[in-house]
Amino acid sequence: MSSTYRVLCLSHDPAIVIERDWHRAEEAVAAGIDGHPHCDLAIGRFSYPLVEVGCPPTPHQPAKLPCYHGGTYWVDSNWLRLLAAGYQTTDLLVEAAVKKDRADCWPWERLLRLRDELGLQLRETP
After folding, report:
1. 18 neighbors 25 (Cβ within 8 angstroms)
2. Residue 6 contacts residue 20 (beta carbons within 8 Å)
3. Taken in order 21, 10, 79, 28, is the CA torsion positive or negative?
4. 126 falls in which pLDDT band (50, 70, 90)?
5. N or C: fewer beta carbons within 10 Å in the chain?
């Protein structure tokens, strides 16, 4: 099955999917995307639905984002859904595990911006 790569602008809430096929999405992000200067960009691999998200090294990630990878760090979308559920849990043990072992690239505020693409079920705030 063939995949389509799209650039995701995470500087918007919710994230914007830049509807263009990128054969070399990592190179495009490194060079900069027209209309998105200084934006926090990621790469989505779609086989519709979204199946993976890549966090490429870029100078425009938020300053407080603790990404320390030299190349693009790919994460399965199902894992991101589980991480989102962990962020929203009321179980203290799960909450502690998420805080301890969460992916550095995916704090709640950044992950939440992908809610439409991931089809996240958000818990109501009390």
Report:
1. no
2. yes
3. positive
4. very low
5. C
User: d(Cα 38, Cα 34) in Å, to the nearest integer?
Assistant: 10
Q: What whole-number distance in Å separates Cα of residue 40 and Cα of residue 106?
A: 12
Distance, C-alpha 77 to centroid of its chain: 9
Residue 37 φ then ψ, to 5°: -70, 140
Residue type, 64: K
Q: What is the dihedral of CA 57, 50, 62, 23, to 10 degrees?
A: 40
Report pLDDT digits (tens) over 18-32: 988 777 888 889 888
Q: At what angle do helices 92-101 and 77-87 cross, to 10 degrees?
A: 130
* Alpha carbon of residue 117 to chain centroid: 10
Does 16 have pLDDT greater than 90? yes
